[in-house]
Amino acid sequence: MGIGKLFINVTLAASTVIAGPASAFEVYGFIPYQSRFENDTIVKGAPDQTWFMRLGIKPIHVVYDNKILVFPRSKNSKNNGRLSGEKVRDVAKSSRDMQVDLVSLDMESWDRFDFDTPDKLIEAITLYRSAHPEAVVGVYATVPQNTYAWSEAKVKQYDEINARYSKVADAVDYFSPSLYNYNGADFSQWLEGAKYNIDAARRYSRSKKIYPYITPEVRVGRATRWLSYDEMAERLQALRELGADGCIVWASSRSRDSSGEAPVLDPAKGWLKAVSDAAMTRDGKSDSAPVDH
User: Cβ neighbours of residue 157 under 8 Å, at least 6 residues apart?
Assistant: First the structure.
C-alpha cells in the first residue's frame, strides 16, 4: 500500500460491523489522487469530502503502521517496531475530530510468519480502540492473510497461516482481505483469489462484514494502467455475488502512467464510474452505461 491521505466526515454508530442484507453493498475509498475532472475541466488538488460522497463513496481512515509504531535503530527494525501510546492517541484524535470511525490498521512492518505477530496485532487493536471507543476496527490483509498472486497449490499454506490468526479475527470488527490485481488484469485468477479469501473470512465469522480491498491500478513494468469500466464492474459484481458486504477502493498517490503522468479522477467514465455505479445501486445493476472504456 502507498501513502496518502483521504479522510471524509462520516459517523458510524456501531462498534462492531454486523452483516446486513445482501443487497447493501457499501463502498469505501482511500483514493489520494491530486486532480479530477469537473465540468470537463481538470481541477488540481485532492477532491474534498463532498465530491466523493456525491459518488456514493464513503470514507475510511487507513492508519499506516509508521503512524503508531516507533522503530529501533537495529538490523531488523521493522519487525521490532513497538506501539507508541502517544502516537495511537494522536491518530485516534484525528479520526474523532473528523468523525471518521471506520478504521483500517495497515501493520505490514511486522513479519506475518513470526508467531508473536498475532499477539502484537491484538495489542494494537486493543490500544487503538481504547483511544477511540467508537472506532470500527479492521486490519488490512491479515484475517485472512494476503494470498498475493493466486496459486491453487498454496491453499494448504494459506489455510495454515490463517488458522494462526484466529484470535486476531476475533478481535477485529470486520474483515478486509487484499484483492489487488496481483495477477495483472487477469480476471479469472483474480476471481479465484476472491473466492478463497471471502470464504476464508466467512470461516472466521459469519456475522462480521467483509470489505475486501480492491484497486483500479494494474502494474505494467514500472508504470501503472487503470482498469476500464467493464474490468472494474465485473470485479465489483463478483464481490457482490460472492457475498462481500462492500469493498474498500485503494489507490496510490505515487502511481504514474507510462508517460509519467499522474492520474486524473473522472467520475463520468472508466473505473471510477463503475465504482460509483456500484455504490449508488442496491442490486448491482445500474441504469447508466459507461461513457467509454
Answer: none
**82 vs 41: CA distance, rounded Å:** 46
287 within some domain: no
Asked if residue 6 has pLDDT above 70, the reply is no
Examine residue 70 and state whether it is found in any structural domain, yes or no: yes
pLDDT (tens digit per residue) in 216-230 = 999 999 999 999 999
Backbone angles phi, psi at 154, to 5 degrees: -100, 10
What's the number of domains the chain is made of?
Answer: 1
Instruction: Round to whole Å and give the CA distance between 180 and 185.
Output: 10
CA distance 278 to 256: 26
Q: Is the separation of the CB atoms in 107 and 65 below 8 Å? A: yes
CB neighbourhood size of 263 (10 A): 23
CATH number at residue 52: 3.20.20
Antiparallel, parallel or unpaired: β 58-59 and 26-30: parallel
What phi and psi, each to the nearest 5 degrees, are found at residue 249?
-90, 120
> What is d(CA 251, CA 218) in angstroms, rounded to the nearest whole number?
10
Q: Quick check: is 172 in a domain? A: yes
DSSP assignments along 26-56, one per residue: EEEEE---SEEEETTEEEES---HHHHHHTT
Using alpha carbons, select from 22, 18, 29, 21 the residue that is nearest to residue 100: 29
From 186, 194, 189, select the one nearest 211 (Cα to Cα): 194
Distance CA(83)–CA(170), nearest Å, equals 20
How do residues 24-73 score in pLDDT, each as one tens digit? 899 999 999 999 999 999 999 999 878 999 999 999 999 999 999 999 98
**Paired residues of 184 in beta bridges:** none
pTM over 0.85: yes
Question: What residue numbers bound the domain in which 256 lies?
Answer: 26-280
Q: With beta carbons less than 8 A apart as the criterion, state whether 245 and 26 touch.
A: yes
Is the residue at 197 inside a domain?
Answer: yes
